[in-house]
Amino acid sequence: MSLLDQVEAALDTIRPYLLTDGGNVSIEEITPDNVVRLKLLGSCGSCPMSIMTLKAGIEEAIKKAVPEITGIEAINLTDIDDPNAVLPENLR
């Protein structure tokens, strides 16, 4: 199984939780030094809690399943103080 397939499988373990809140995640690239670059989709892309989702959910799942991965970055992480950030409806 390729590194990309392993990361996708790890993401599939947490996708149901992201989808519940109207979000998702896609892999943009895996760099030569094994850093996964992700794009947060749907409500995950505009949620002020996205840093927690990335660190406590996505990063944890990937690093546990694919120890070769050296880092995880989101290319569109929403800052918690962003005035345009919105919470998913079911978290209000």
Overview of the structural elements:
This protein is α+β, with helices and mostly antiparallel strands and 92 residues long. It contains 2 helices and 3 strands. It has a 3-stranded mixed beta sheet with strand order 1-2-3, covered by helices on one side. Helix 2 links the parallel strand 2 and strand 3 (71-74). Helix 1 packs antiparallel against helix 2. The radius of gyration is 13 Å and the shape is globular. The model has no long low-confidence stretch (mean pLDDT 84).
Record the SSE blueprint.
Layout lengths: L2 H18 L2 E8 L4 E8 L7 H16 L5 E4 L18
Parallel strand pairs: 2-3
Antiparallel strand pairs: 1-2
Tags for this model:
92 residues; 2 helices; 3 strands; 37% helix; globular
Give me the number of helical elements: 2
Radius of gyration: 13 Å
How far is it from the N-terminal to the C-terminal residue, by CA? 40 Å
Tell me the β content: 15-25%
Strand order of the largest sheet: 1-2-3
Mean pLDDT: 84
Number of strands: 3
* Structural category: alpha+beta
Amount of helix: 25-40%
- Detail the poorly predicted runs: none
Order of helices and strands: HEEHE
Morphology: globular
**Largest sheet properties:** 3 strands, mixed
